[in-house]
Amino acid sequence: MVRSQNKLIDSFARNAIKLRISITDRCNMRCVYCMPTNNNEWFEQNDILSYDEIVRLANILVRLGIEKIRITGGEPLVRPKLEDLIRKLSHLDGIKSISMTTNGLLLRDKVMQLRDAGLKSINVSLDTFKEDRFKAITGVQGLDNVVSGMYAAEHAGLEVKVNTVIIRGWNDDEIVDFAKFARSTGYTVRFIEFMPLDGSGIWEPNLVVSKRETIQRINEDLKELNPLYNKNSEPATLYSFVDGKGTLGFIPSITEPFCQSCDRMRITPVGILLTCLYENPGYDLKALLRSGKSYDYITTYILECIKKKPEGIISKIRAKELRPTLNLMHRIGG
Ligand code: SAM
Ligand code: SF4
Questions:
Q1: What pLDDT, in 10s, does the model give residues 156-214?
Q2: Residue 8: inside a domain, yes or no?
Q3: Alpha-carbon distance 230 to 208, whole Å?
Q4: What are phi and psi of 260, to 5 degrees?
Q5: Does 127 sit in the ligand 2 pocket, CB within 6 Å?
Q6: Which of 21, 155, 255, 287 is 20 to 30 A from 207, comparing alpha carbons?
Q7: What is the pTM of this model?
Q8: 251 vs 179, 191, 237, CA distance in Å?
Q9: Is residue 10 part of a domain?
Q10: Is 7 part of a structural domain of the chain?
Q11: 273 has pLDDT over 80
């Protein structure tokens, strides 16, 4: 493949090499920190990008230097024939990996098809090991399905990571249990700070459990953690235990924002390009696709958009502008 000479470089000299594609805003859960309460405002079906449209945009972006694609949502597994999309994306010339973030409810029965289509790794979200609490956080029952989905993914040969959003008063008493789970399974458990991307408007600073506090609580119980070198340039800072068993990641989006090393961009289910998680409204690529604009036209447009990428949440923190629902996570996908 001939990569374009142009790269996705913004005015802060950051180079986007990772793309997150949110393929639906719909979900079979209602997580308190994500979904709007009583949400029934879904995108219209005919506004949602088809798989062919997604692949066309991904093709342009891969030529501009995107190396890794993550499929997300809403819940990606509620969209039929997801394996068809993964297969097409994994055949793009120049792509290095296709991964997915899922709530795991539907994973067990789909995992072989996803792997055979080219999926290499999977992040499964899980915030509690208690069934009643699982229902309180996600609005549904199904803890066993999620855990068995993880094991099925591991069995199928996928790399498994666990995403855990810690919220004070909801699940912070399970921090050590998640650390022990990483030790016993060998999965990487990533503790994510609660971000003001909640549709329900519950976010407030004292619900955020910082990376620092999380590490301190684990150290008190399980003794020393050792920093690890993160070879994948991910925002998670990684630690292992002194005996080397189990990996923990910490994503301190609020207390230690990593905007200056951001290498991501995002496409929403309706084809809006977001150069930053906190960008609003973003840039309408679907309109360009559906009005028949050429490949070169869309390429030039995207290069103009990326130049305007904002500094990120770090500037909102500096200006003391954090408040709930700065954007909607169930549309963007993380
Ligand atoms: N439905 C899938 C899932 O839950 O894994 C994929 C989409 S979900 C929006 C992607 C990730 O964002 C999940 O790991 C979820 O826990 C995380 N997330 C959602 N809302 C969040 C928030 N307000 N702050 C931090 N992480 C959040
Ligand atoms: Fe659905 Fe994922 Fe949001 Fe939970 S975090 S409501 S599973 S999109």
A1: 999 999 999 999 999 999 999 999 999 999 999 999 999 999 999 999 999 999 999 99
A2: no
A3: 24
A4: -65, -20
A5: no
A6: 21
A7: 0.96
A8: 15, 6, 7
A9: no
A10: no
A11: yes
Q: Does the beta carbon of 191 sit less than 6 angstroms from any atom of ligand 1?
A: no
What span, in angstroms and rounded, lies between the C-alpha atoms of 102 and 150?
Answer: 10
Which residue among 125, 164, 266 is best mutated to probe the pocket of ligand 2, counting the most ligand atoms within 8 A of its Cβ? 125
- For the chain, the domain total comes to 1
Domain that holds residue 145: 18-332
Calculate the CA 185 to chain-centre distance.
Answer: 22
* CATH at residue 263: 3.20.20.70
- Coil, strand or helix at 5: coil
Decide: 327 in ligand 1 pocket, CB within 6 A: no
Residue 233 lies in a domain: yes
Q: Are 161 and 177 in contact (CB under 8 A)?
A: no
In what helix (H) or strand (E) does residue 72 lie, and over which residues does it extend? strand 68-72
Contacts of residue 235, defined as CB under 8 A and 6 or more positions apart, other chains included, come to: 251, 253, 258, 261
C-beta of residue 12 within 8 angstroms of C-beta of residue 258: no
